[in-house]
Amino acid sequence: MIATRTKSNSHVSYSYDSFFDTLRITFKYSPEFYYEEVEPNFLIRLDEETDEIVGLQILNSKSFNNGVLNKYLNQFEVAETLKIINQI
Prior knowledge:
Elements: E1 4-8, E2 13-17, E3 22-26, E4 33-39, E5 42-47, E6 53-59, H1 69-72, H2 75-87
Antiparallel strand pairs: 1-2, 2-3, 3-6, 4-5, 5-6
């Protein structure tokens, strides 16, 4: 059985899969997107038309190096991601 927790607010939604220790965060809805692995176990989700970051996926999130976030995300996205990581 896979335990998944999903929460959302007006800005950010996330899903955490405890079995696979995978965290998915959506900052902005995009109907068409693609993932790019920019660091080991860290994928950013980009809008297909604008290449804007609309979300991310972190594999092995319990052992993830949070310092990577500042290289790819803006301050709001970093703050929201750290808040979520601390909740799971």
